[in-house]
Structures are given as C-alpha cells and as structure tokens.
Amino acid sequence: MEVARHWRETPERYRMEAGKCSKCGKIAFPGRMICPECGSTEFTKHTLSGKGKIVTYTIIRTAPDGFEDLVPYAVGIIELDDGIKILAQITDCNPEELKTGDRVVAKFRRINEDGKTGMIYYAYKFVPDVGI
Amino acid sequence: MRDIAIIGIGMIKFGELWEKSLRDIAVEAALNCMKDAGTDRIDSITIGCMSGGLFNGQEHLTSLLPDYLGRHTTPAVRVESACASGGMAVRSAFMEVASGMSDYVLALGVEKMTDVSENIETYTLATTADGDYEAFHGINLPGLYALMAKAHMEKYGTTRNQLAEVAVKNHRNGALNPHSQFPMEITVDTVLRSALVADPLRLFDCSPITDGAAAVLITTVEEAKKIGKQPLVIISGIGVASDTIALCQRKDILKFEAVELAGQRALKMAGKTINDINFAEVHDSYTIAEIMVIEALGIVKEGQGGVATANGITSLNGKFPINPSGGLKSKGHPIGATGVAQICEAVLQLRGQAGKRQIKNAKTALTQNMGGSGGSCVIHILEAK
C-alpha cells in the first residue's frame, strides 16, 4: 500500500521528529526501537532543530525516476546542531556556489509524486541559512 | 570444521548479453565450472543473486536454476546481500561443506541486468541504499559515492586525477582479461571528459551495467586431494561485517567499518596479516570505493589511497596489485555474480593460469565484495598449497 508507506513516516518527514535515548541521550533519526549506542529500548520524542551545516554534498546530473525535472540539484549530508547527521536535498540556491561548512536550515517541501494522479510526497529540504 | 578447497571455477564473458536469459548465463557458468573441476558432482547449490525480481520479474531461482542445470531435485538456497550477494553465496557454500552437511557445493552467482529499462536498473541499484531516508530524497548509488569522494578530496587532498587513475589502472588490467565487458585501455582524459553523473564522479568513475554469471565448486581438502588438481587452492579465511544502511549515520563517512572488520576477521581466521597477501580483488563499483577499500584493509594508510594508486603501488607490477581482473570497472559488475567472479580470478592467479595478467609468485589472495554504500562486506582469503 503505497499511501500507507509514506503516511506512516509523517512525524519524521513533516515534523522532523526523532527519538532520544532515555539512557544515553543518543538521538536517532529516524526513530528506532533499539538504541545503536547503548541497546536501551526507552526513547522520548525529540524534535530536530532543523539547523546545521553541510558536511559534504553532490550535484545530481543523472536523476532517479521522478527527479529528472530538478536536474541539476544538490543532495548533501548535513550535521545538525543537535549533533546528528541527516541526508537531504539542498535547494533555493545555485548548487555550484555551495561550499562545505555552509549553514543551512530545513524547510517543508515537495519531494516527488506518484505519477499525475497519485500521492504527492512532502518532507524537509535544506536551504541556505540567511537568518530569516 | 573441515578444511575447504576450490576445485572448479566457471566464468563467462561479461557484457550486455541480449541473446541470453538469466537461466542461460547461470547454466553456462555452472557448466564451465564443472568442466574445470573435472567432476559434475554437486550435492547442493548456493545462489548469489541480488534482484531477479526487479531485473527479470523472476524470483524462486532455487527452483529455476537446479531445474535448468538438469538436476531439479538438488537442494538450493539463495543468498542476498545487495552487491555482496555473490561473496556471501560462496561463504554459504563454504559453511555447508565445512560443517559436513554436504561434500560438493556449487556457489553460483548471477545477475541479468539488461532485461529492463535504464530507469528500472538505476531504481533497483538504489534499493541497496536506505529506501525511506536516502533514495526517497532523490539520491542514487553514484550520488552516495560522490558524497564520499567530495569529502575524501576535501579532507585528504585526493585529486580528481587520482580518482581517474583507479579506472585507468583497472581498464589496463581488464584489457588483458578475455572475460571483460570493456577490455580496452583508457586514459585519465577519457575519464575527465566523460559525462558528470554526480559531482565529482563521472561516467568513467562508475562500474557498468552488466549481464554475467560465475561459479565455483567447493569441496573438502581431502576430496580435492583425491581429484589431485595442482596447485590446491584453499579458502583459509572468511570475514563478514555489516555497517549502517544509511551513509549519513556513520560516525565517519570516510571509513568503511564493515570492510575493516571483515578484513580483520578473515585475516585472523587465516592466521595472516595484510602483509602476507600478494594481491587483492576489491569492490571498485566506483573509483572512490577502491581508494577507500584499500585504506580500510590497511594496504595503504588512511587518506593515501589516491596517491598510492597514482604512484602505481596497486598496478599489476606494483607492490600490491589490486584488481588484476580489471575489477568491476572494466570486467563488469553483474551484481550477484561479482563476488564469485572475484574468487574465480583469485583462483586463476593462484594456479598461475592468468595469462598476460599473471602476477608472479602469487600464493595468497584476498577478495573483498561489498553491498550498497558499504553496508555489508564479505572477504575471503585464498591460498595456493
């Protein structure tokens, strides 16, 4: 069921909700049932700051299905101020001008769609942090 | 545990084999293997195939392949670990013979990738990444390796030309391999002038889409001695390790922890160190992959993979030859067959039958096969006795 597959990720994709280990404090995104650091199974909800800096990025020139219209677009690994790394597109910029270390901030954006009549998938993308 | 030998290897010429089906190429490799072994005794079959389902609309290879091998009642099991499926199938065959469960096991790797459109090929390869948190965001496998390449260049000063040197070296070797999909030499310029796929990686940094199959026949050292083939090639160590499926969840995205650990485990089992190894077949799905793998294995120091390649250390006549077969880059990368084909090359070299690409005095070999962006890895140590 394609709709359910995306619907159940809503807390992570729409609100950037992560899990924080009650024992060791490790933040897991997406949430997990077992802490990869200490093995604990107790977590509390933690909403990610959505702010961070670019660790590395690439500019996709040959895109997967459904992303062709975006070419060329940047995808990067962002280290959030929360101390974890996350992969996402970096948009609203000239990808050629990005630099490692640039500050970015998460925005709610359209990612892809299931054909012309199917579901539209939304989630976070990052944009240059200009302090707004 | 019983000691294990490889008594037969079977390769086919890799390529876009439009006139042949999945079952055709698998059977062809198995026949070549039985011919090489001088026996057709097969008690059991382990199959390495990543995605018959998506590439061919065909699962249930554990029925299809024994059936078309003319032995439809022979037990078979299929092993999947993305691009490491082939190596994992050999490990399964090893365990089955070592345990005493069977005496002769055929490890058969196969992938028929060109039966679908390029979009489906790319989609299928991207299923080796985290579907919900990587592929969902519009990144594919070359994109993930590009993230590593960019970071490697910035942290260690690896250059664009050094990446290209990996492809140049592997094509130079592959040009000497009759089974290569692309047996032609290229230059650094060929790589730098090819289309950008995901900056900084270009088309010639990437292994191709390939149809192919490869097989090895495994038995006990005791049985192999009865057959009397010289030199005897044994598997003396195997190591497997996993890592996070998502690249961004690794503490250090420039460290293939699964490769490092699998290497240590395999060497420990064999009672060897990396300095005892004469050459290696490694998983150069992308040029940056080979650079990071030789670092993780301890063949070169951290961050020095690019420099070492440019200096010829990993060339056929270098201090530590890497990918004498031409690697995935030149020989081709039929996903499920790749790990088995690496072992075929190692056996050929250890027997002294590698022709123009023969490495002198090759006695001990390492093969390294990994899945996705490094989320799983299997390593074998082979020795000529």
Defining key terms:
heterodimer; A: 132 residues; mainly beta; OB fold (Dihydrolipoamide Acetyltransferase, E2P); three-stranded antiparallel sheet; globular; B: 385 residues; Peroxisomal Thiolase, Chain A, domain 1; nine-stranded mixed sheet; 14 helices; 18% strand
Task: Describe the structure in brief.
The complex is a heterodimer of chains A (132) and B (385). In chain A, 9% of the residues lie in helices and 42% in strands. With 132 residues, chain A is mainly beta.
Secondary structure layout:
The complex is a heterodimer of chains A (132) and B (385).
Chain A: H1 2-7, H2 10-15, E1 17-21, E2 27-28, E3 43-47, E4 51-60, E5 73-80, E6 85-90, E7 103-113, E8 120-128
Antiparallel strand pairs in A: 1-2, 1-3, 4-5, 4-7, 5-6, 7-8
Chain B: E1 4-11, H1 22-37, E2 44-48, H2 52-56, H3 61-68, E3 76-79, H4 85-98, E4 105-112, H5 118-126, H6 141-156, H7 160-174, H8 188-193, E5 196-198, E6 201-202, E7 211-220, H9 221-227, E8 233-242, H10 257-270, E9 279-281, H11 287-296, H12 305-310, H13 327-331, H14 335-351, E10 364-371, E11 376-384
At the first level of CATH, the class of the largest domain in chain A is Mainly Beta
Arithmetic mean of pLDDT of chain A: 95
Would you identify the CATH architecture of the largest domain in chain A? Beta Barrel
In DSSP terms (H or I, runs of 4 or more residues), the helix count of chain B works out at: 14
Largest interface: A-B, 32 and 34 residues
CATH topology of the largest domain in chain A: OB fold (Dihydrolipoamide Acetyltransferase, E2P)
Radius of gyration of chain B: 19 Å
Kindly give the count of domains of chain A: 2
* Number of domain modules of chain B: 2
Helix content range of chain B: 25-40%
- SSE series of chain A: HHEEEEEEEE
Mean pLDDT of chain B: 97
Model regions low in confidence, pLDDT < 50 over at least 5 residues of chain B: none
Structural class of chain B: alpha/beta
CATH-assigned homologous superfamily of the largest domain in chain B: Thiolase/Chalcone synthase
What amount of the residues of chain A lies in strands?
A: 35-45%
CATH class categorisation of the largest domain in chain B: Alpha Beta
Residue stretches of chain A low in confidence (pLDDT < 50, at least 5 long) are none
Radius of gyration of chain A: 16 Å
Category by helix and strand content of chain A = mainly beta
Reading side by side through the largest sheet of chain A, how are the strands ordered? 6-5-4-7-8
